[in-house]
């Protein structure tokens, strides 16, 4: 039995689009911040007597595509370990699933760490990042503590995430809608690639954005980091909305939160908005400003306190004793 905990990450430079769907190799590199909120806890037990994998999410038996996706991932681990034993997998998820808050990132990062340990694979952080990527691309970044860059690479061996040094950053997550989105990220990526006239421009611009972002981190330039974060998010959503038929994740309230970030900056409080593939908006700021940004955002938008989540840089995916209580879902 092995138990692992992982947290979601929010991309500052987005991952959107695969050039290899089997290996999950991205069209471009990306960069993210792993958070200290919304942990996923996964316990895996190898069972030589079982005829099939048994998978539960928050106490409910997983079926359909969700179960098949996990079994396919475990087959990769079993092949690498040279072991055929099936597994019992129990996952407890505190991040809303399918809401654009990186639930698959924390989920597959935790699964990768637990499965590698249970099946006896001695993997270092880079190897775990490669493995997690095969379950969900962004999961390779949740293996890493704090800020991580995911290299697009040219093959399986060269596409992984590693830490990036830089200034202390924090976030305020504004939960617009915690429900499951109508179009999954995987489907939306395919539709963007196949039908959006901006897909190629998105990839070219994002590669340049990543180079600029790494340079901004190198000189600890928070303003440049924030401006690149907001611009890159809006470029991604522009490419998505240009798909046919169109996909629109951002709601009027989402756009209002981008406007609120601009208003906070005009008032002298630095914060920049970003959004993954969903309606929920995240404000990036200096770590010491998280509480002030949350309070100012609540005053400006009227959102209740339980929908404004303060977050800081968090730990990478890691093993924990099975007897440990589940980590808290959010931080104060």
Automatic annotation (TrEMBL):
Keywords: ATP-binding, Lipid biosynthesis, Lipid metabolism, Lyase, Nucleotide-binding. Its EC number is 4.1.1.33. Gene3D superfamilies: 3.30.230.10, GHMP kinase, C-terminal domain. Coiled coil: none annotated. It is an enzyme of class 4 (lyase). It holds the Pfam family MDD_C. It comes from the Bacteria. Residues 171-299 form the Mvd1 C-terminal domain. Belongs to the diphosphomevalonate decarboxylase family. This is diphosphomevalonate decarboxylase. The lineage of its organism: Bacteria, Bacillati, Actinomycetota, Actinomycetes, Micrococcales.
């Amino acid at each position: 039995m092995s138990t692992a905990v992982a947290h979601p990450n929010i991309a500052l430079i987005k991952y959107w689009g695969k050039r290899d769907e089997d290996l999950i190799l991205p069209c471009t590199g990306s960069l993210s911040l792993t958070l200290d909120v919304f942990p996923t806890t996964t316990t895996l037990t190898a069972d030589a007597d079982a005829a099939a994998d048994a998978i539960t999410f928050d106490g409910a038996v997983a079926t359909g595509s969700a179960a098949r996706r996990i079994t396919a991932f475990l087959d990769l681990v079993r092949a690498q370990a040279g072991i055929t034993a099936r597994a019992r997998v129990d996952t407890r998820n505190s991040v809303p699933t399918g809401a654009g808050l990186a639930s698959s990132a924390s989920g597959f990062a935790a699964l990768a760490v637990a499965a590698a340990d249970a099946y006896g694979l001695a993997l270092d952080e880079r190897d775990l990042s490669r493995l997690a990527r095969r379950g969900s691309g962004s999961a390779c970044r949740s293996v890493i503590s704090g800020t991580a860059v995911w290299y697009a690479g040219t093959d399986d061996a060269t596409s992984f995430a590693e830490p990036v040094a830089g200034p202390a950053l924090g976030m305020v997550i504004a939960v617009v809608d915690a429900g499951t989105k109508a179009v999954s990220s995987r489907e939306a990526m395919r539709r963007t690639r196949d039908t959006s006239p901006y897909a190629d421009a998105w990839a070219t611009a994002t590669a340049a954005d990543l180079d600029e972002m790494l340079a901004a981190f190198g000189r600890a330039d928070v303003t440049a980091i924030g401006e690149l974060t907001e611009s890159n998010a809006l470029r991604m959503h522009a490419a998505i909305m240009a798909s046919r038929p169109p996909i629109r994740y951002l709601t009027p309230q989402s756009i209002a939160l981008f406007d609120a970030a601009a208003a906070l900056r005009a008032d002298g409080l630095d914060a920049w908005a970003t959004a993954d593939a969903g309606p929920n908006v995240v404000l990036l700021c200096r770590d010491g400003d998280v509480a002030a940004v949350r309070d100012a955002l609540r005053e400006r938008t009227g959102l209740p306190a339980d929908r404004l989540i303060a977050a800081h840089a968090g730990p990478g995916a890691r093993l924990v004793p099975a007897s440990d209580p589940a980590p808290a879902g959010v931080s104060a």
